[in-house]
Amino acid sequence: MAFWWPLLVLAAAYALCRVLLLLIPPTVPSMEVDASDVLEEVNQNKEDSFIYIPRKGKAAQTDKVRCYEPATMKYLGYFPALTPDEVREHVAQASKAQKIWSKSSFKQRRQFLRILLKYILEHQDLICEISSRDTGKTMVDASLGEIMTTCEKITWLLDEGEKWLKPEYRACGRSMLHKRAKVEFYPLGVIGAIVSWNYPFHNVFNPMLAAVFSGNAAVIKVSEHASWSGCFYYRIIQAALLAVGAPDNLVHIITGFGETGQALVSSVDKIIFVGSPGVGRMIMQKASETLIPVTLELGGKDAFIVCEDVDLPNVVQVAVRAALQSSGQNCAGAERFYVHKDIYPTFVSRVVKIIKSISVGPPLSGRYDMGAICMIEHSERLQNLVNDALDKGAEIAGRGSFGNLGEDAVDQFFPPTVLVNVDHTMKIMQEEAFGPILPIMKFSSDEEVIQLANDSKYGLGCAVFSGDQKRAIKIASQLHCGVAAINDFASSYMCQSLPFGGVKDSGFGRFAGVEGLRACCLVKAVVEDRWWPYVKTMIPKPIQYPVSENGFAFQQLLVETLYGISVWDRLRSLVNLLKMISEQKATPTRKKSR
Prior knowledge:
Elements: H1 4-23, H2 40-44, E1 64-68, E2 75-80, H3 84-101, H4 106-122, H5 124-135, H6 139-165, E3 168-170, E4 179-187, E5 190-194, H7 200-213, E6 217-221, H8 227-243, E7 251-254, H9 258-267, E8 270-274, H10 277-287, E9 294-297, E10 302-306, H11 312-323, E11 334-340, H12 344-357, E12 359-360, H13 378-391, E13 395-399, E14 401-402, E15 417-420, E16 437-443, H14 446-454, E17 458-459, E18 461-465, H15 469-477, E19 483-486, H16 491-494, E20 503-504, E21 507-508, H17 513-518, E22 521-529, H18 551-563, H19 567-593
Parallel strand pairs: 5-6, 5-8, 6-7, 8-9, 10-11, 10-18, 11-16, 12-14, 15-16, 18-19
Antiparallel strand pairs: 1-2, 3-4, 4-22, 9-21, 13-15, 17-20
């Protein structure tokens, strides 16, 4: 016992020191980012802050990306639609910077993350306001979808990123016991990303953080519907890179339309795309020309399943939040609601009560629960989906109300809408709506709801609610999708250690988590001698060239020695193998004696 006491004291002292070190805050410098030209009060005084009427359709794709606030239609400015040659120049600059950054230490990369995190925490209102102005979402939605998710990703990378990028040792197998096997992770080069408009801050930071932390450069094409905010967020990235002494041109934000995106795909070492299945197929076709790896995060039609034994008041609130995720900009939101027949009327009535209390309006001009629809003509598409359902027998159980919109603002807003008596013949249950519509369908059994939930060309995520957690897990395990939340919604994305992505028309590949981080890397398998230089690889004499007459018999015994079913089989083969080797060594001696 006396022997153990000193060890216990040392262990306790070590643990105490570790705890005390955690209490010492790291030194993180502050940085300044010029936001004088994007503040609301400044823009209101500009002569060019006029009401903008955007052109519709393909005619809008000119040499400029024009930006406006969807909630007010105020003009924000424009950015160039880059040509293919200009895109290639951006990628070339990034590639040159990446060769320097690839040699950076994890300490330097972590400091970059800490500086970003500090700025985000200190400027949440600015970041959310810019997101709100460019996409029409409320400040609360911006905080949930932009700030929290990005902070969670940064802290996960700080805590675990280096561990998952260090060499990982693997089992070497029976035939290579004298070897050491490992996987090494090297930067790919320039990671390209084409991202959607619905989360302009997080969609820029998400691929950038993984790329830069793993030693890559990043060139990100922001959506033509959210270029104004994306270009401001780029200033934050630039300032943080400058603060840690990173090479110039390591990260680029580019603007433009389809031609710009196609040029990016042709120029980078990997492409990450967040958008529609149709464009995703074009991205794959273009990427096949250079055979670069592709990650596609495409559409979703997530099922939200409510069993009869749930805590109904809480689930109803979660359901409404899931449907109206990001002011009706429904990426990662629930789009199909299946409720057990025993609680269907009560569930619908409670949802309708909440929906009717929701007010829709310009998010920065008053206290509104939901903001504007970001894309021109999208509200018309949403109404067409509702009309199709009504024509086939559905009913509107309730809708939200508009606030003080003004006569010219109707097209940018769509009231949250509850549909009942829906079925799978209706487009609203099959096509991605990307809007604040809650189609609620009843089911009678677990088997039925599993079949209904799987009856979709999409397979991104699902949420299953039941008072019996094992029952919910069993249902979720039978749904063909990439992510699942049990008695919650979208919680899997907030666990940034988990991969995110889908199947079928929802795409393939994963970002976030270990899988997403390593997807930014060249994964290299390495085998080396375990006891070098004492034990080296030697070709056995029977199979050396020229191969001896009993070479195949030797090889058979070797296979049986290594992989025999039982220990006795392997020992028996080993004895015979050693006997063969000894006889072969003795044969030349007998010939010499004659």
